[in-house]
Design brief:
Radius of gyration: 19 Å
Order of helices and strands: HHHH
Oligomer: single chain
Low-confidence stretches: 1-11
Shape: elongated
Number of strands: 0
Strand content: under 5%
Structural class: mainly alpha
Distance between the termini: 44 Å
Bound molecules: zinc ion
Number of helices: 4
């Protein structure tokens, strides 16, 4: 009937194109949101320069640490999202990085940026 779409890279694509587009959309939206969030951090706090001048109250130091921690979380999340978008481009989205098995669309629905299948995720966590 229809000819294969020519991309030999689509090795083990278990999710269909409609789902793939939806995941991509979700990932792009989340990337945008996370980037905006990160930009706010950069604007509010001058990271890097003032770290040595912490003679303020402990509360403030604690808040600073929390902000740094949250910023790191956001940066890591963003990295994961971009990696997932990259996997979509390469045609290997939905394939577990560890065992090359299928990542169920159920798991992808919970976290579209996941790079491990459920089995490997449990081993890693
Ligand atoms: Zn796996």
């Amino acid at each position: 009937m229809t000819r294969p779409s020519g991309s030999a890279n689509f090795i083990r694509m278990m999710i269909n194109e409609k789902e793939l587009n939806e995941f991509e959309e979700q990932l792009r939206k989340e990337a945008e949101k996370t980037e905006t969030h990160l930009q706010k951090f950069e604007q509010n706090v001058d990271f890097g320069n003032d770290v040595d001048h912490f003679d303020e109250e402990a509360d403030e130091a604690e808040e600073f640490a929390n902000r740094l921690g949250l910023r790191k979380v956001l940066q890591e999340r963003l990295k994961r999202i971009y990696e997932a978008l990259d996997r979509i481009k390469k045609g290997i989205y939905g394939v577990c990085e560890k065992c090359n098995g299928e990542i169920s669309s159920k798991l992808l629905n919970i976290d579209p940026a996941t790079n491990y299948c459920q089995k490997c995720k449990q081993l890693v966590l």
